[in-house]
């Protein structure tokens, strides 16, 4: 079996997927029709043609526009279900989904609609596909900390439906320190903590996520290569980094997949994992990321196995399940 064949076949966890980023253009158009939403694109092809990004913000503008078709509980369910079927096909046995409630509540969609639709899909994923799925509520960092606190309060009646919180959207100019109070409150509530850091932002934002937010994982984190002390710290603590190679390519964080730092991160002993981020926008789901990265970087079978094991080491699962999977 070649390393790429192994990458496809091996059971794995996906830990960095924005569920709104799994909305395929066909589903966007189908939901627009079902809900009577008028889109600023004439066709599926015209929408897909707009997917030429130069940086994170150019992507986020289109990503938030795509999410505007989500209105009813069934829309959230259908979106997540479509992702779970793709995950199953890629031998993903466990997944942790990010969702962005503020993208929906600011349009008048109730928190209950968002969480109940996603949660019901998670239950069915386990029951019908054998894929375990957990939800992570993300705060939009371009909005205020007070807005994040209000979002947390609105979500607390549904506390049992999400395992943790994250921080996403426009990174530059919105450092982790802006969210220190809300993360402290989430920590008191026993929520798992993650944050996007070091995607476009500097290593300093990763230090802030570690020291001020006290995160259990960092999403992306590719900027750590600029800071040898940070590399040493991450190797020592094994704080996981959920890396998204095709996202980094499509958002011009790297210019060529062959230049992606994932192998250097593995060589340094970091707990790195491979993930799809926004698969409908960045050219592929889990196995496309795994296979293209394996081929571009010439990863060995052992390195593929390490990546899969890292995904279970980094997952928010019980020790018993971890032992079985690793
Ligand atoms: C995102 Cl790639 C990325 N970075 C930050 N926030 C996001 N939300 C959805 N995708
Ligand atoms: Zn992300």
Can you give a write-up of this model?
Catalyzes the hydrolytic deamination of adenine to hypoxanthine. Plays an important role in the purine salvage pathway and in nitrogen catabolism. One of its GO terms (biological process) is hypoxanthine salvage. Substrate binds at residue 278. This is Adenine deaminase. The record marks 220 as: Important for catalytic activity. With 326 residues, the protein is α/β, with parallel strands linked by helices. It has a single domain (3-316), classed as Metal-dependent hydrolases (TIM Barrel, Alpha-Beta Barrel). The chain has 17 helices and eight strands. It has helices spanning 3-9, 25-35, 44-49, 56-66, 73-89, 101-105, 111-129, 145-155, 180-188, 203-213, 228-237, 245-250, 262-267, 279-282, 286-297, 301-314, 319-325, and strands at residues 12-18, 92-99, 132-140, 164-168, 192-197, 217-220, 241-243, 272-274. The protein has an eight-stranded parallel β-sheet. It is globular and about 50 Å long. It starts with a helix and ends with a helix. The relative contact order is 0.15. The model has no long low-confidence stretch (mean pLDDT 98). Bound molecules: 6-chloro-9H-purine and zinc ion.
List each distinct ligand once: 6-chloro-9H-purine, zinc ion
Low-confidence stretches: none
**Strand portion, in percent?**
5-15%
Order of helices and strands: HEHHHHEHHEHEHEHEHEHHEHHHH
Helix content: 40-55%
> Numbering strands along the chain, what is their spatial order in the largest sheet?
1-2-3-4-5-6-7-8
Number of strands: 8
Question: Any idea what the radius of gyration is?
Answer: 18 Å
Give the CATH level 1 class.
Answer: Alpha Beta
End-to-end separation in angstroms reads 20 Å
Count of DSSP-assigned helices? 17
**How many independent structural domains?**
1
Q: Outline, from the CA principal axes?
A: globular
Characterize the largest beta sheet: strand count, sense, and whether it forms a barrel: 8 strands, parallel
The CATH superfamily label reads: Metal-dependent hydrolases
User: What is the mean predicted local confidence, pLDDT?
Assistant: 98
* CATH architecture call: Alpha-Beta Barrel
The CATH topology is given as: TIM Barrel
The secondary-structure class comes to: alpha/beta
């Amino acid at each position: 079996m070649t390393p790429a064949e192994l990458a496809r076949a091996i059971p794995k966890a996906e830990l960095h997927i924005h569920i709104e980023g799994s909305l395929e253009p066909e589903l966007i158009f189908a939901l627009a029709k079902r809900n009577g939403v008028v889109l600023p694109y004439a066709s599926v092809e015209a929408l897909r043609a707009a997917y030429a990004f130069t940086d994170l913000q150019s992507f986020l503008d289109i990503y938030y526009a795509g999410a505007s078709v989500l209105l009813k509980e069934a829309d959230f369910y259908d979106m997540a279900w479509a992702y779970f079927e793709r995950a199953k096909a890629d031998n993903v046995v466990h997944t942790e989904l990010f969702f962005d409630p503020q993208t929906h509540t600011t349009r008048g969609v109730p928190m209950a609609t968002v969480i109940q639709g996603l949660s019901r899909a998670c239950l069915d994923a386990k029951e019908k596909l054998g894929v375990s799925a957990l939800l992570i509520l993300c705060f939009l960092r371009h909005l205020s900390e007070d807005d994040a606190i209000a979002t947390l309060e609105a979500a607390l009646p549904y506390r049992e439906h999400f395992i943790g919180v994250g921080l996403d959207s426009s990174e530059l100019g919105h450092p982790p320190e802006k969210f220190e109070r809300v993360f402290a409150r989430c920590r008191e509530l026993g929520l798992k903590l993650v944050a996007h850091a070091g995607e476009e932002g500097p290593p300093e934002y990763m230090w802030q996520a570690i020291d001020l937010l006290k995160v259990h994982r960092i999403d992306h984190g590719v900027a750590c290569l600029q800071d040898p002390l940070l590399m040493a710290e991450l190797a020592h603590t094994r704080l996981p980094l959920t890396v998204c190679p095709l996202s980094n390519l499509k958002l011009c964080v790297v210019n060529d997949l062959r230049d992606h730092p994932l192998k250097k991160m593995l060589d340094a002993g970091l707990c790195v994992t491979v993930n799809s981020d926004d698969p409908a926008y960045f050219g592929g789901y889990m196995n496309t990321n795994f296979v293209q990265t394996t081929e571009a970087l010439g990863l060995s079978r052992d390195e593929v196995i390490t990546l899969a094991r890292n995904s279970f080491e980094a997952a928010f699962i019980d020790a018993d399940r971890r032992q079985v999977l690793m």
